[in-house]
Specification:
The protein is mainly β. Helices cover 8% and strands 66% of the residues. The chain has one domain: Porin, CATH 2.40.160. The chain is built from 1 helix and 10 strands; from the N terminus they run H-E-E-E-E-E-E-E-E-E-E. An 8-stranded antiparallel beta barrel has the order 1-2-3-5-6-7-8-10. The longest helix is centred in the N-terminal third of the chain and has 17 residues.
Length: 205
């Protein structure tokens, strides 16, 4: 994934260096399967364009301090052991890059074909602690050490399709795309065309 992200960054920086025409740069928000979701930069030239989206979220989970014991009322049926758990820090990151080839342009709209890819990364910490029932004291007490694990998931979407952008005002532009998408998650591969993508940008003209 690191090589993929580095490749996207190099392409974007190269494109920005080449994109010298004034009034072609837009910043805003966008979301989609092959565009990625979050903050968005779009360059729209006379013949081609590109867009890059980026978002990252990291937040703390629950308190991972397990109590030394639980009251015996926690016992269910004949179970002598139960497991308590907490969720820790959750991290989400996605980045996407789309290339646009303009087919027809008017004073208010642009029609284009596009292709691109987006990487979604989701990670969540998970903590578990076993408790065993003590019949003498009628409480559950800790049994063993805390088990810590991290659930990581990577989703890669790539595809191509058609799109339309429309100038609401001189500076504000909206767009809607309809891509054919191939998704790779773990060992699974899916093909879908059910979800369009879109966004809004402010162009500096």
């Amino acid at each position: 994934m690191k090589k993929f992200i580095l490749t996207i960054i190099i392409i974007v920086l190269t494109g920005m260096l080449l994109a010298e025409e004034s009034g072609r740069h837009g910043l805003g928000f966008a979301g989609g399967m092959i565009s990625g979701s979050g903050f968005s930069y779009r360059y729209l030239g006379s013949k081609y364009g590109f867009q890059v989206n980026l978002a990252a979220i990291s937040r703390n989970g629950e308190d991972v301090t397990f109590p030394e014991s639980y009251h015996g009322g926690m016992q269910t049926g004949d179970d002598d052991i139960f497991t308590d758990h907490y969720y820790g820090r959750e991290t989400f990151f996605n980045i996407g890059f789309n290339y646009l080839k303009l087919l027809h342009t008017t004073s208010k709209s642009q029609f284009y074909v596009l292709g691109g890819a987006a990487v979604y990364y989701d990670s969540e910490e998970y903590f578990e602690q076993d408790y065993i029932y003590n019949e003498d004291s009628e409480i559950y007490v800790k049994n063993g050490n805390v088990r810590e694990s991290t659930d990581d998931e990577i989703l890669i979407n790539t595809g191509a399709g058609i799109g339309i952008s429309y100038n609401l005002t001189k500076n504000i532009v909206i767009f809607v795309d309809w891509p054919l998408v191939v998704s790779f998650r773990n060992d699974n591969t899916d093909l879908t065309m059910a979800i369009p993508q879109g966004g809004i940008h402010y162009f500096f003209k």
